Amino acid sequence: MSQTIISGQGAPAERLALGGRTMSQGMFGGIALVLGIVGLAIAGNYPSAETYLDAIAQIFLGLSLIVFGMALAMAYIRVVSNVESPGTVTGTTADMFLGGAVVILGVLALVHIVPQILIPTAAIVVGVGLLLNSASSVRAATLETDVSAERTLVRRVNEELVFATASLRAVAGVSVAVLGILGLTISADTMVLTLVAAIVAGAAMLLASTSLSSRFVRTMIPHPA
After folding, report:
1. How far, in Å, are 43, 95, 99, 123, 211 from residue 53 at the CA level?
2. Which is higher by pLDDT, 191 or 221?
3. Sign of the CA dihedral 42, 47, 49, 50?
4. pLDDT at 92
5. Residue spans of alpha helices (H) in 23-152
6. Is there a domain that residue 194 lies in?
7. Residue 128 — φ and ψ, nearest 5°?
8. How would you classify residue 155: left for phi > 0, otherwise alpha for psi between -120 and 50, otherwise beta?
9. How many domains does the chain have?
10. How confident is the model at residue 27 (pLDDT cuts 50, 70, 90)?
11. How far apart are CA 97 and CA 103, in angstroms?
């Protein structure tokens, strides 16, 4: 499903179960979420601004997918470095390709190149990306468990968070893809549907970010004084 592109060394074992989630992914997702909400708030009154906000939201979702792909690559490298001598691993991830495609589609829509088609298409690609990275993050966590010498409580909680947020992203991915398809077929409400898709995808990426997961782990399992 994905291959790695970055080379690196090992990291603390508890970090591997995060399955490639990053604070940047959550930040970009949060920006897309806000843009989607603002776009819906002005829908119908300012059509041009609505289209701009929708296109920019898709660009940030594409960036989020790219960041996730890079972080997932590092997660795989850390797993490999635990069992083998560190080395350079080359390749790409599906998330990087899909994220790059979404960014390109968003930029083209931003300069008014058939936005009614490109923005829903970008939403569909984002939905596919969410489905793929949810499966990839579960796979990374599973591989990390297979090579671990021990399973600490923090590791087990992180794994549960990976599975829970992966399920959420999978459901969000299906929803976003369906909204994008509907946007292509229902021209009257295209921007409204894709703005809703941006809100769903942005919320899923924000909730799956490492910062929120780490805060939950620290709350549930406080470090001894």
Report:
1. 10, 23, 18, 14, 26
2. 191
3. positive
4. 57
5. 23-41, 47-83, 94-110, 115-147
6. yes
7. -65, -40
8. alpha
9. 1
10. confident
11. 10
The DSSP annotation for 159-220 comes to HHHHHHHHHHHHHHHHHHHHHHHHHHH-GGGHHHHHHHHHHHHHHHHHHTSHHHHHHHHHHH
Residue at 118: amino acid letter? L
- C-alpha span between 36 and 29 (Å, rounded): 10
In a domain, 152, yes or no: yes
- Does 2 map to a domain? no
∠ CA 12-164-72, nearest 5°, is 45
Q: With bands split at pLDDT 50, 70 and 90, how would you rate the model's confidence at 124?
A: very high
The domain containing residue 199 runs over which residues? 13-220
Kindly tell me if the per-residue pLDDT of 81 is higher than 70.
Answer: no
Q: What is the DSSP letter of 43?
A: T
Supply the angle between the helices 23-41 and 210-220 in degrees, to the nearest 10: 110
Q: What is the pLDDT of residue 20?
A: 44
- Please say if the pLDDT value at position 4 is more than 60: no
pLDDT at residue 11 above 60?
no
Report pLDDT for 100.
93
pTM of the model: 0.77
213 located within any domain: yes
Tokens coding 64: 């989020």
Amino acid in position 71: A
Read off the tokens for 191: 């921007």
